[in-house]
Amino acid sequence: MVRRNVTELRAGMVLAEDVMTPGGRFLMPKGTTLDPGHLKSLLAWNLPAVAVAPTDGEGAAADGPGPVAPAAAAPGGDLAEAAEAAVRERLLWLDLGHEAGQVLFRLALEREIRRRVTTQEAGGAGEVRGFDRQERPERTDRPTRSDEAAPQPLASPEALLRDEPKLVSPPEVYLRISEVLRDPTSTVEDAAASIRYDPSLAAKLLRLVNSSYYARTMRAVEGRFPAKVDSLSRAVMVVGARQLATLALGVSVLPLFQDIPPHWVNMRVFWEHSVGCAVAAQAIAAASGRGNPETAFVAGLLHDIGRILAFKQAPAHMAAAMRQAAAERLPLSFAERDRLGFDHAALGGHLLRKWQFPANLEKMVRYHHDLDEPLFIEEPAVIHLADGVATALGWGGSGNRHVGALSPAAWEALGLSGDALARMVPAMEARLTETMRSFFPDRPGPL
């Protein structure tokens, strides 16, 4: 082990000890292989030196980018402190004593510092979304109403859905795909034909199946570098008929949720959050063995569609909910229950049931904020954690500014460790960028 000045560090070096901030807070774990983002974070904290594993001379890091800029040119501690304040506000309701909370705090802080450094280098003030207040509010099982007048809670999710005839009748291609999923005798060609009916949908799915995620799967199965998937029949062979049809089912309804006024939510940012939750859910399902990864992807993609519907059908209620969430520093789902009488997850679940989505997928959406309700929580727990990861790390947003409390029962049901979650996140981020390009090729992401 050797101690090196932070300005002497190179990408590829490995930390020999946990790195702590000057205030004694945990920053990076022992064993971290440094990349350029880590180097910027260490500079931002103005750390004098850190312990790294010895290398065989300078050649051990020869492929790195070379020495980073001197500390005098690095952002100061104020930037790092502001980043930490923003992250602590975002994670206000998360138990930072839990191993999952510790991991999400560390990963969120690294990425918040990185975003602020990048913004500052681009000529901005180094400020991004977040809050500066750090005191924790008094928490109750049900938040109290603010004094501001607001509409009375709604009767039920079903009543809200009756007022939106457009959403009661999903696209024709959706109905065709649903028939394939419900018919146990459906063939590979049946699945391909149902998707081929919509050329735009087919193109999106082919881009998705040609992503690195499925390329790795094909290499593992076939033992060779796969050729490009250029037909739906081949895509069905790669992913599986029912799995591809499930993916198509979710993607086919996305155009119904594009016309929300920007003063409610930026739809580009909304879909970044949804895709972030989807790729996290797919990875978590695969790693934990809790549910089908493709089903988890679609559930993550659609987990907040109830919020879009609420913005459209109950704007006064949602305005009151957003005001309450901001004033009382609550997760938005808490305020939704107070103002609407139910939250977006319950509303989204009712919509998916009306559309006859697979029951397990509907349950994953309906209960991802209410894990006390379902008899078996393993599949909803996947979306519960994935949503927390996407919100904590700032992948887009759907109007919610705070990560909800992580259910210990959900964490236990998934059987993951904090280290395992941390190792998955870089691949999730890469997949987020790739999937955004698949869905929105003219507007790649993330932001």
Polypeptide structure, described:
The protein is mostly helical and 447 residues long. The protein is 55% helix and 3% strand. It has three domains: 2-121, Alpha-Beta Complex (Molybdopterin biosynthesis moea protein, domain 2), CATH 3.90.105; 156-168 and 257-447, Hypothetical protein af1432, CATH 1.10.3210.10; 171-252, no CATH class. Helix 8 packs antiparallel against helix 21 (418-439), helix 12 crosses helix 21 (418-439) and helix 13 packs across helix 18 (359-366). The longest helix is centred in the first third of the chain and has 23 residues, at 99-121. The two termini are 38 Å apart. The model is unreliable at 58-75 and 128-147 (pLDDT under 50). Residues 167-371 form the HDOD domain.
What oligomeric arrangement do these chains adopt? Answer: single chain
Q: Outline the biggest β-sheet.
A: 2 strands, antiparallel
Q: How would you state the average pLDDT, rounded?
A: 81
Number of self-contained structural domains: 3
Tell me the series of helices and strands, N- to C-terminal: EEEHEHHHHHHHHHHHHHHHHHHHH
Residue stretches low in confidence (pLDDT < 50, at least 5 long) are 58-75, 128-147
Structural class: mainly alpha
Q: What's the CATH class label of the largest domain?
A: Mainly Alpha
Task: Note the overall shape.
Answer: globular
Tell me the strand order in the biggest sheet: 1-4
CATH architecture of the largest domain: Orthogonal Bundle
Taking all Cα atoms into account, the compactness measure Rg is 23 Å
- Quickly count the helices: 21
Please report which band the strand proportion falls in: under 5%, 5-15%, 15-25%, 25-35%, 35-45% or over 45%.
under 5%
Helix content: 40-55%
What fold name goes in the CATH topology slot of the largest domain?
A: Hypothetical protein af1432
Which homologous superfamily in CATH is the superfamily of the largest domain? Hypothetical protein af1432
Give the end-to-end Cα distance, rounded to a whole number of Å.
38 Å
**SS elements, strand count:** 4
